[in-house]
C-alpha cells in the first residue's frame, strides 16, 4: 500500500494530539512532522515534499488562510478549525476538505480518503507556456518565457515582462499556483523572479533587468536550493 506523507500545523496541544492520533490510525498516512505555528510549517513546506497538510486556521502571527494565500501549496489541504465562517474562503483556495472541531474519526477518515483519491488520480504536470491573468475587465495572456519578475504593490501585483507591464489583483498564492516553480520562484513576500532572467546574485539581492530585488530569510533556503538544481 502506498503511504502518503503528511504534516499537521495546529497550535492547540489537545487538538494536535487528537489529529495526530487519527493520522496514526490510517494505514495509508505517514506523519512526517507536526508544527505549533504556521511560520515553522511554511518553512518546512518550502523545502520538503508533503502529500497532505492538516491545517488549523486561527493561529498567531500567520493564520492558516494567510498561509494558503501567501504561497503555493501543492499538497492536499485539509482545514481543521472550530470556525465555520471560513469554509467558503477555504474552498475558494481549493482546499480538499474542511473539518469542524470537534470532528470524529469517521469524519476525519472521510477527508483522508478524499485526499488519497485526489493524489491517486493526479496527472503529471505538463510544461506551461503561458497563463491568463485578470487585469481591469479582461483576461490577458502572458508568455511565461517573457516574465522578468513580479512585484507586490499593496492590493496589486505588477508583472514585469520583457515587452510590457501588467497590473493584476490576483495574489501571490494564486500566481504561484499558476506558474511553474522551477521557472518562477518566490524570493520575498513582495517578489517573484524568473530564474532564467537573473543576471547576478550579490549581498542578498538579485540583479535582474537593472533592478535589485531582496531575498528574504523565509524564502532564501528554498530559492538557493532551486537555482543550484
On the 0 to 100 scale, the average pLDDT is 88
Strand order of the largest sheet: 2-1-3-4-5
- Radius of gyration over all CA atoms, rounded: 19 Å
Number of strands: 15
The span between the termini is 31 Å
Count of helical stretches: 7
Roughly how much helix do the residues carry, as a percent range? Answer: 25-40%
Helix/strand-derived class?
alpha/beta
C-alpha geometry: elongated
SSE topology string: EHEHEHEHEHEEEEEHEEEEEH
User: Uncertain spans, ≥5 residues at pLDDT below 50?
Assistant: none
What is the beta-strand fraction?
A: 25-35%
Q: Characterize the main sheet.
A: 5 strands, parallel
Report a brief summary of the structure.
This protein is an alpha/beta fold and 229 residues long. The chain is built from seven helices and 15 strands. 29% of the residues are buried.
Describe it for me?
- The structure is a single chain.
- With 229 residues, this protein is of the alpha/beta class.
- It is 30% helix and 34% strand.
- The chain is built from 7 helices and 15 strands.
- The strands form 4 sheets. It has a 5-stranded parallel β-sheet. Strands 10-9-8-12-11 form a 5-stranded antiparallel β-sheet.
- The longest helix has 17 residues, at 105-121.
- The protein starts with a strand and ends with a helix.
- The model has no long low-confidence stretch (mean pLDDT 88).
Question: Which short descriptors sum up this protein?
Answer:
five-stranded parallel beta sheet; 229 residues; five-stranded antiparallel beta sheet; elongated; 34% strand; single chain; alpha/beta
Amino acid at each position: 500500500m502506498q503511504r502518503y506523507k503528511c504534516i499537521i500545523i495546529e497550535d492547540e496541544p489537545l487538538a494536535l494530539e487528537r489529529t495526530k492520533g487519527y493520522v496514526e490510525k490510517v494505514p495509508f498516512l505517514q506523519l512526517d512532522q507536526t508544527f505549533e505555528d504556521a511560520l515553522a510549517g511554511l518553512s518546512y513546506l518550502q523545502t520538503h515534499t508533503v502529500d497532505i497538510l492538516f491545517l488549523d486556521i486561527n493561529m498567531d502571527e500567520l493564520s492558516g488562510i494567510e498561509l494558503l494565500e501567501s504561497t503555493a501549496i501543492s499538497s492536499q489541504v485539509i482545514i481543521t478549525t472550530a470556525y465555520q465562517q471560513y469554509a467558503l474562503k477555504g474552498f475558494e483556495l481549493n482546499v480538499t476538505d474542511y473539518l469542524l472541531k470537534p470532528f470524529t474519526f469517521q469524519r476525519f477518515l472521510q477527508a483522508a480518503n478524499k485526499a488519497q483519491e485526489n493524489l491517486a488520480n493526479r496527472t503529471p504536470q505538463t510544461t506551461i507556456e503561458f497563463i491568463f491573468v485578470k487585469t481591469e475587465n479582461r483576461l490577458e495572456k502572458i508568455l511565461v518565457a517573457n516574465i522578468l519578475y513580479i512585484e507586490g504593490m499593496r492590493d496589486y501585483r505588477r508583472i514585469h515582462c520583457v515587452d510590457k507591464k501588467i497590473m493584476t489583483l490576483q495574489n501571490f498564492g494564486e500566481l504561484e499556483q499558476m506558474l511553474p516553480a522551477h521557472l518562477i520562484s518566490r524570493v520575498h513576500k513582495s517578489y517573484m523572479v524568473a530564474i532564467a532572467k537573473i543576471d547576478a546574485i550579490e549581498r542578498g539581492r538579485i540583479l535582474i533587468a537593472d533592478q535589485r530585488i531582496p531575498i528574504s530569510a523565509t524564502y532564501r533556503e528554498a530559492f538557493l536550493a532551486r537555482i543550484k538544481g
